């Protein structure tokens, strides 16, 4: 279920992601190569008019793959870390446990998604279409293996807090739902 929702979310959000990457990358280009979108709607309209509707889905494969990896790795690693913390530390099922497990889940998700993020960004910001094999070969020749974690820190700075807040809210939501539906708590755990 997590993989499916991530995949569909990756497809649905791809036009906005392409536009975001292009608008952020625009300032780094020489003046003659800049797209100079006035705003998001202008960018979407111009992309469609100047490059065709398919330009909205440039990089959709790595973007969807990233979304699948992101969602699945966040959920699986959160559950795994929460179980480990509860069974191997004196912590109970509380805010400290949820924070710790979600922080670690954000670390895992960022690390797993980093190579796909780099590829996705390169594809989306490119002026010409280049195949995945060509991009990987060129990037490896120029940057070595380090390309896979280019931008890891900014990605974690964005994704870490997002993951923490998501799981803290999820756990509190579950707790409130269980209380409202009459499920009782035993020793700090809602059963």
Briefly, what is this?
The chain is mostly helical and 191 residues long.
Could you list some keywords that capture this structure?
191 residues; mainly alpha; two-stranded antiparallel sheet; 6 helices; 2 strands; elongated
Q: Which stretches are poorly predicted, pLDDT < 50 over at least 5 residues?
A: none
Proportion of strand residues: under 5%
Question: Average pLDDT across residues?
Answer: 89
Largest sheet: 2 strands, antiparallel
**What is the 3D shape?**
elongated
Question: What is the tally of helical segments?
Answer: 6
Amino-to-carboxy terminus distance = 24 Å
Order of helices and strands: HHHHHHEE
Question: What's the alpha carbon Rg, rounded to whole Å?
Answer: 20 Å
Beta strand count = 2
Structural class: mainly alpha
* Helix content range: over 70%
Q: How are the strands ordered across the major sheet?
A: 1-2
What does this structure look like?
The protein has helices at 2-25, 40-51, 60-88, 95-125, 132-143, 152-180, and strands spanning 185-186, 189-190. A hairpin with a 2-residue loop joins strand 1 and strand 2. Helix 1 packs across helix 3 (60-88), helix 3 (60-88) runs antiparallel to helix 4 (95-125) and helix 4 crosses helix 6. With 191 residues, it is mainly α. It starts with a helix and ends with a strand. The protein has a two-stranded antiparallel ribbon with strand order 1-2. It contains six helices and two strands; from the N terminus they run H-H-H-H-H-H-E-E. It is elongated, with a radius of gyration of 20 Å.
């Amino acid at each position: 279920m997590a993989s499916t929702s991530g995949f569909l979310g990756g497809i649905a959000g791809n036009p906005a992601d392409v536009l975001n990457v292009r608008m952020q990358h625009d300032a780094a280009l020489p003046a003659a190569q800049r797209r100079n979108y006035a705003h998001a709607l202008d960018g979407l309209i111009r992309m469609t008019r100047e490059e065709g509707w398919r330009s909205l889905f440039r990089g959709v494969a790595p973007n969807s793959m990233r979304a699948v990896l992101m969602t699945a790795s966040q959920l699986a690693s959160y559950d795994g870390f929460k179980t480990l913390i509860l069974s191997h530390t004196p912590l109970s099922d509380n805010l400290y446990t949820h924070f710790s497990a979600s922080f670690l889940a954000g670390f895992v998700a960022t690390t797993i998604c980093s190579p796909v993020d780099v590829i996705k960004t390169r594809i989306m910001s490119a002026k010409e279409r280049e195949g995945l094999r060509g991009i990987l070969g060129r990037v490896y020749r120029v940057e070595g293996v380090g390309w896979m974690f280019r931008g890891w820190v900014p990605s974690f700075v964005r994704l870490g807090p997002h993951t923490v807040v998501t799981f803290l809210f999820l756990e509190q939501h579950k707790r409130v739902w269980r209380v409202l539906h009459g499920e009782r708590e035993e020793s700090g755990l809602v059963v």
